[in-house]
Amino acid sequence: MTWDARPPLIPRLPFQTRVGLASTAGDHTLDRPLASSTVLLEQPIEPLLVELPPGRRDLHQCAGLPWLVMVHALGENRTGTNYWQAQAARIIAAADIVVARFDLSGHGESLAGMDVRTWLRQCADAVTIARRHRARSVHMTARGLHAALLAGQDLDGVRIAVFPPRPDQLRWWSSVRDRVDSELLEVDFSPGGEERTFWEACGADTSRLRGFRVPVGVLRDLVTPFLEGSVAWTVAVTSSRESTGTLVCGGGPLTRLESERSGLAHLLREYLARVTARGNGGERS
Questions:
Q1: Is residue 114 part of a domain?
Q2: pLDDT at 82
Q3: Which of 57, 147, 179, 185 is most buried, with most CB under 10 Å away?
Q4: Which SUPFAM superfamilies does the record cross-reference, listed alphabetically (predicted)?
Q5: CA nearest 74: which of 205, 218, 179?
């Protein structure tokens, strides 16, 4: 069974915002290398890759700083599609924010299977590690369907959903919802048209951007919260066509991927920096 799972998860230029964030279009620091460093922390399930702010040599020097835990999308890994999370981690760390990311089980270098309960535990373990290292506050981003994982986290910071699907973008679920949970579905992410141009501009080999297999039960656990309205986040990065987004990316044509990717990272960095400056960690839910 092949179904088309291509919600508009890719941001578009030009960047806009409805919370008055300053534009980064004229920021000439975009091309400067960011001298951050990374440490790898062992975790019960998968290791945690932690990006330290420039000038911080170890986690002891990061006590009192805010942390951001980044959760990748379904079918990605801790680097993100075309390494967007890896680049975003370096850019955000430059604002004195510690950034942690990891492979969800069943993704990347993980040899385990896909399981939403395991993913929730991995997110919680990352938050625990941040607090163990005396984080000032802990924020979390989650992309696509994995924004459903945000509601189950005990955070004192903001929850940022990066391009979460709308209920009307999940109509495909009705054609597979009655299948047994153990059945594997082939998810087709093969790009075409404008999307293909987008990835090729990034230097990606689009012939390798194919589908992957995922159990029906995993999809059920992710899709149901969206359909029932039980998802929860503080802000969302969405298309400008959305009327409820707080962080908004414009709806112009896709142009340069590098500008797009770094622009989104700078937007997130500035938002988190302002949240930290206000001393407002976010909301518990």
A1: yes
A2: 67
A3: 147
A4: alpha/beta-Hydrolases
A5: 218
- Assigned domain for 194 exists: yes
Residue pair 107/98 in contact (Cβ under 8 Å)? The answer is no
Residues in a beta bridge with 51: 38, 99
**Range(s) of the domain holding residue 52:** 2-19+33-277
What pTM value is reported for the model? 0.76
- 2-4 β-sheet, strand order: 2-4, 184-188, 212-215
Residue 181 is part of a domain; what is its CATH number? 3.40.50.1820
pLDDT range class, residue 217, cuts 50, 70, 90: very high
283 lies in a domain? no
* Assigned domain for 246 exists: yes
CA distance 115 to 107: 11
3-state helix, strand, coil split of the chain in percent (to 5) is 35, 20, 45
Count of other CB atoms within 10 angstroms of residue 199: 19
CA 237, CA 248: separation in Å to the nearest integer? 5
* Residue 205 confidence (pLDDT): 66
3-state class (DSSP) for residue 40: strand
